[in-house]
C-alpha cells in the first residue's frame, strides 16, 4: 500500500511538472487569438480614426487582429458597460474617453457600471483640445460674431454632441456658462452623425476634435473658429484660442485611452501597454495621428490612473460650477 501511494505521488508530481510550464507558456503567448477593441461611438469619429491606426500596428506587432467594434449610444455607456461586464482576460478592451469614465461619474447619477472602478487604465494614447466648428453657411466667421448671433437669438442656435454627458456636450455647456449664452443642444449617437448634420446645416455649432472634422474642413463644408485649449493647433495656425478671443475658463479637450475590465491580470495589462507604447513610437503612426490633428500623450497604467483621478475631480467641479443639470 505504501509503495502504491508513493508511486501515485510520483506520477502526480511528474504530471504537474509537465503542465506548469505549458501554462506559463500560454500566459507568455498572450495574445493568442484576436482582440476586440470596442469604440463607444459610431464609425467615422475621432476615436475610430485612432482605433484603426492602432489596429494596424497591433497586428504587425502581435500577429493577432485587433477587431474594431463600434457600439454607439448613451454617450458611450453602452460600450463601456459591455466591456466592464466582459471576461477580464485581455481579449475585450475599450477605447475610452472621459465621457465613459470621469465625466460619467460626475454627470450621471445612475449607471449600470462604476465608471471609476469597473474599468482599469491600460494606456493613454492622445490628449487633444476641442475645436469650435460651425457650418459653412452659419453667419459668423469669428467667435465675436458667433456670440453676437447667440445673444440676438437666445436658445435658437443649435449645437450638436455625441450624446448627453459626452465631452462635447459638457464642453459646450461650460462655454455657455462662461459666456452667458443660451444654445440649443441636439444629442447624437456619435461625432460622425453630428458632423454630417453640421455639414448639412441642420445644426450650427459643434465642439469636437480636428481628427473628426478634418475631411469636412478640408472640403470647405465646415469652418473652424477657435481652439478650446491653451495653445493654437499646429495644423490650424490661423485659428485663435478661445482665450485669444476674450473667452476665459472655457477650455476643454478629449483624451483617448485603452481600458480593460476590472480584474484583468497585471501581466496582460503590462503586455498590452508594451505593444501600444511600441506602436506609438512608430514614426508613420505618429505622423498619421499628427496629420489628423491628434496630440500624442502616451502614458502607462500608473500615470494614466493618476490622470484619470484628477480628470474626475476636474469634471465634477465643472458640473458644479456651470450648474449643469445631471441625469
UniProtKB/TrEMBL annotation:
UniProt-listed PANTHER family: BLR1237 PROTEIN, TRICARBOXYLATE-BINDING PROTEIN
InterPro entries: BUG, Bug_dom1
Signal sequence region: 1-28
Superkingdom in the source lineage: Bacteria
Keyword Signal assigned: yes
Organism of derivation: Achromobacter aloeverae
Classification via Gene3D superfamilies: Bordetella uptake gene, domain 1, Periplasmic binding protein-like II
Listed name of the protein: Tripartite tricarboxylate transporter substrate binding protein
Alphabetized Pfam families for the sequence: TctC
Record flagged with keyword Signal: yes
Stated family: Belongs to the UPF0065 (bug) family.
Entry keyword set: Signal
